[in-house]
Amino acid sequence: MRIRTTRLATLAVTAALTLGGTVAVAASPASAATGGGDSDVSARAGLGSITGASATVGPDGTYTITWTDRWPGPMRVYASTDADRFTRLVGTTEGTSLTVSGLDPAKRWYFDITPAGPRAGVVTAPRSLGLQGAPNARDLGGYRADSGRTVKYGQVFRTDALGKLTDADVARLGGLGLDVSADFRTDIEITGNGVNRLPAGIPVENLPIADGNLTAITNAAVGSRDPIRQKELLGDGKAAAALENVYRGFVDDPAQRAQFATVLRDLADGRTVIYNCTAGKDRTGWMSAIVLKALGVDDATVQADFLASNDNLRARNEATKAGLKAAGLMQDPSLMDPLLYVQKSYLDTAFAEVRSRYGSFDAYLREGLDIDPITELRLRARLLTF
């Protein structure tokens, strides 16, 4: 288990030292966008000075960091591959934007935006991990929680299956300080899609959660090659209804609840965790919703994180649909959309089941997941920062 310093301790010991390497910096007074980049829309707000911090990375590896400063003044920006320790100064500005190039593209970078004087800064980073073989891999940090706190970066990561990672992807994962990898896929899924590629030495927890017969339904529909049969199986809301039933199972099935609870306890114990299913959208999506709700993140943000899978997976999903049509397997591959994408109704169904069975999310934590108040406090202490 890697021991991490608190944010305030980090501020106390950070020296004004620029580490070796050449970094080019350009500052501007207004925020800028980087085409093709990835952004964090809800970074930590420190002690009230800086809000709306975000980081985007373009295809050329150039980062654009933007923020809103309620008390304008000199601003220092640091970069680090460790979200808890910042010593590499990459620029100063009196504006609200900084463009940084020259950082090693093989690594994941976090940025500390620190104003002059006693006011605390913020940490931000691109949401995506930038893995070529796992487009839905992302950091769950940066979201605002209750009491002005924010989820820490670099502690908990959600992703789709990691079996198709490139060597560069694996190397990038190696820089995240991972303590454990939790895999929600069944043995059949792992056999079909490949064992996760991980850096050496990372323990794997196999926490299989069944897909509620979705694989059988999908195979029957596609294998039939019959448009009428496919519509009977998937059309008129049937596919979406099947997914909603899967989400009810996340809440109702004691075995599934136990798998989700294992990851919560890992996080409460201070482990840096990456967890996945196949697409990183359903089992992984509900796991992420549990983590964020337990940390006090508001419902709108939890929903936005859940639905972000649609954009991350769109290119791959559309290619899958085009392939089905080109192969003559489906005349109307849009019937697959409820299976390939997530819908708000899926998450709503799970939370409705929580209320129906337990009355509240807090009761679900206690009774459904067997997370006692002390474990919840430890979870918040480890994953939240000011």
Automatic annotation (TrEMBL):
One of the record's GO molecular function terms: phosphoprotein phosphatase activity
UniProt KW keywords: Signal
Annotated InterPro entries: Prot-tyrosine_phosphatase-like, Tyr/Ser_Pase_IphP-type
Leader sequence residues: 1-26
Pfam entry (one): Y_phosphatase3
Key word Signal present: yes
Protein name: Protein-tyrosine-phosphatase
Organism: Embleya hyalina
